[in-house]
Specification:
Strand content: 5-15%
Radius of gyration: 23 Å
Largest sheet: 8 strands, mixed
């Protein structure tokens, strides 16, 4: 009986195989020849993701036009295009998580549940539960508690692609040279930064420092681990308390012991300083994993190890990065969804991650291919995801303005020494 069942099951699978293939082809047939325009960032993850665009076209017949930009310049262009009544240029936009609630509040992007429920285009093998849960919470959802956390009312408006958490990278060779233990907390971190500055003549910790979003992001890296928040439970600004002041003072000391030019660093310059051997420690996103292994980008290949973000009063790591969304005024919405779905499926996620992009799926994280190629990175990512905090910054519609125009203008006075941390943050609260 068991043998008969096995034979019947094999026959059914054999019969089903062509049907599944045909169904997949039919999913794309209606859209063959359409052209979608995708706006996405110049970023390590998308440098690898864009290599699959031609494969997508070959499989689906849907053509892809590219608009690749520095990521902080994307928002103005996206808002302009998504605000055009007759339809803008973009069919797919990649947003930074700090823009998601603003885009929803302004009715600029489509909720994705109707697309996921459309059997004609939804891939039953796509598997939302396989997306790393904290990335889904942070990057996809809008409408829940605080407008941006999972819970009643939350629904997806984007698909995580290039999502990320934080990690500490460090020069294992230099730590060995000076017989220094990997810092577990902030006291140890700042002490080690001073040692490398004085003894090795390079920066201790690389960091963003550029006025606006970049310096705010750098300060937030230290605010959450030290127990601070931007707003209290009643939405009153609370970042000028002892925890906020301490985070700003930590950032000032990091700048003082950092590589030359750190006060003007954006994300790219900050990362490059570590890759070029100008700093001994890196604390920022996991987007370092791929470039640090690439001899074309890195002078420290084989010299880097990873650890948890150091503890303040608690362990905490950033949660952020990017997601893909469909503008309300997109001309080719179904084709856009098919592109987003294909680029984030299990096969594509594994390919992008192996090439040096960010892991977005549990199946990729668990794959033997990743374990082999990223033997030290994968365990570090697993540990970082345990302390990853989706609420490390308030992703409300007003946040981009607060980050760029208020906090991002106050914090440079702290790192330059022209104002005390307390005075600068008090003024920003007002």
């Amino acid at each position: 009986m068991k043998r008969r069942q096995l034979i019947q099951g094999a026959a059914a699978s054999a019969a089903l195989g062509p049907w599944v293939h045909t169904f997949a082809q039919n999913r794309y047939a209606k859209y063959k020849g359409q052209t979608i325009v995708v706006n996405y960032p110049a970023h390590p993850h998308f440098d690898q993701a864009e290599k699959l665009f031609a494969e997508f076209t070959a499989e689906t017949g849907i053509k892809v036009e590219r608009d690749k930009m520095q990521y902080l310049r994307m928002k103005d262009k996206q808002v302009l295009e998504m605000g055009k009544p007759g339809g803008g240029d973009y069919d797919v936009i990649v947003y930074v998580v700090m823009w998601k609630t603003e885009y929803v509040a302004k009715n600029l992007i489509e909720p994705l549940n109707p697309f996921f429920k459309n059997a004609a285009i939804a891939d039953p093998a796509w598997d939302q539960a396989d997306i790393i849960p904290k990335y889904w919470d942070t990057n996809a959802l809008v409408g829940g508690p605080k407008m941006y956390l999972p819970g009643p009312g939350a629904q997806p408006y984007g698909i995580p692609c290039g999502a990320e958490t934080g990690v500490m990278g460090y020069r294992a060779d230099l730590f060995e040279k000076y017989k220094i233990s990997v810092p577990q907390n902030y006291d140890e971190l700042l002490k080690v930064c001073r040692i490398f500055k004085d003894k090795e003549g390079i920066g201790g910790l690389t960091s963003r420092g550029q006025t606006g979003h970049q310096i705010t992001a750098a300060w937030l890296m230290h605010l959450s681990p030290n127990g601070g928040e931007v707003f209290d439970s009643n939405w009153r600004a609370a970042f000028n308390n002892a925890q906020g002041v301490k985070a700003a003072e930590i950032l000032k000391e990091i700048v003082e012991t950092g590589p030359p030019g750190i006060a003007s660093y954006g994300f790219g310059e900050m990362q490059n300083a570590f890759l070029q051997g100008q700093a001994a420690i890196y604390i920022d996103t996991i987007a370092i994993f791929g470039p640090a292994q690439d001899p074309a980008k890195s002078k420290v290949v084989g010299k880097v190890a990873y650890a948890l973000h150091p503890k303040g009063t608690r362990y905490s790591a950033m949660s952020g990065g990017f997601a893909m969304a469909i503008p309300k005024n997109a001309k080719n919405k179904d084709a856009a969804f098919l592109f987003m779905q294909w680029m984030t499926n299990k096969k594509s996620d594994l390919k992008i991650s192996l090439a040096g992009g960010n892991v977005n799926r549990l199946s990729t994280l668990d794959s033997p291919e990743m374990a082999k190629k990223y033997a030290i990175e994968v365990p570090a990512l697993r540990e970082s995801l345990k302390i990853c905090n989706p609420d490390w910054r308030p992703l409300i519609p007003q946040w981009d303005h607060i980050s760029q125009q208020i906090l991002g203008q106050a914090l440079p006075d702290v790192i330059s020494g022209s104002k005390s941390a307390k005075a600068a943050l008090d003024a920003a609260v007002k």
